[in-house]
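README: folding subset

This subset contains proteins for which both the sequence and a predicted structure token string are available. Records are stored as plain text. Below is the entry for GumC family protein (495 residues), shown exactly as it appears on disk.
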Amino acid sequence: MQDLISMIWRRLPLVLTISIVGVLTSFYLIVSSPRIYEASAVIQLDMPAAIDQGTDSSLPAARRVQLIEQRLMARANLREVIERLDLFSNTPQLSEAEKLTALRSSTRIESISAPGVSVDSRMSLAAIVITSRAETAVTAAAIANDFADSVVNRDRDNRRLRIGESRDFLTAEERRLNDQLAAQEREIIDFSSRNEDSLPTAQEFLQTELARQDETESVLDRDIMTLQRERLALEAGNLTAGARPSASLVQQIRAAEVELSQARRTLAADHPEIKRLEENLTRLNSGATETDSDVARRQAELIDTQLTQLNQQKVALDTRRQEIDAARARAPQVARELEAMTREQRRLQDRYAEISRQLAQVETQQMLMDSDQAERFVVLENAVPPEYPVLSNRKKSAVMSVGASGALALLAAFILEVMNPVLRRSKQFERVTGTRPVVSLPYRKSEADIVAWHRRNIYLVVLLVVGALLALWIVGAIPGLPSPGVAPAPTDGMG
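--- output ---
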């Protein structure tokens, strides 16, 4: 410690000169540096309690903030802000890219998450803080408020635009799906009508129809065989009886009744043959008679007519059976095609239902937006011009500058001592040689040393006085004398 104090004392002019020059330089840099003001605006996310947020299909608030921030920091929007607030009017030498970079770097948008809410939740965003820095307090507040208004307005405009675009798209999609469903339904109806017997739902009916056809065919076969026997009996009677007297009236009436009953089993009630047989039976009952030949002839004609009709019915049954067999053979292919068309119809119906649900949600959002009941951003606190510049810790900077200057001065003095090592005290001699000197005499100053000593003291006093005056001048503490380091406060803009 004694060696250090002795070194400082010997090198005091150098140490003091370096320290004062360093402190004055630091003061000048601190004072001449521009002042930066910071202002913040707070935006709150307003969530109406009467609205079920689960039905809101819009983008989450956090995602909307990201999109808005990207648009706010776009080149075109920053250029509009500069023109609207007349920024950088006192720094025309800056290029447009430099102005945009300065404005973008001086503005910060922070999102505040709601405590206890999941990040993926729609209610995770609690507030937004927009902070802006500028060289004047008014400009910093104006920039922050301008960006805050832009966030609120752009969010509302973006939501209206998104809702409008979604409504138009969903309406067009609903109309398109409705047309497709109508076309698909017509196609299914046309396909079903063309393949009615091959449909899966018609197979049970066809099986029942085949069973009825078998029964009908059996009845027709019996009727045909009966008519054929009657025809043979009639022919045999004509051959054996020859010119036998005409049949009695009772036999004719009995034959007419048999013919009428057989005809009613095979023909419709309004058939002309039924009507003719009924008239014949009525005539016989009235007492009219016919010859045997006429009766036999008419009976033979009636039997032939009945046989023809029964045979035609059998042909129709055979034709229908062939149609049923062909339809049943096509049933698997028809079932596959019908199933594919039905699946497509169900898919279109599901898509139509989903589009209708989304359209209802969008229309609900539009109604809420029109009634100002939807989720929205609200400016909770406007930015106000700050009273003091940000980071105004000049005292701390001054203390650090003094410390750095003193350390530099001590380092210079130590280097000079190392370059000229001299043993000036007995303890130094003892420490270096390990031998304690017997006698140590104090140094006697000569007249030149005394003159140099007085000059040294005068230099130190002058140095201290000049350094103090310069420090007061730099910080502007001398009345009537402006500081050379304090830049004039800008009237507007950021530069």
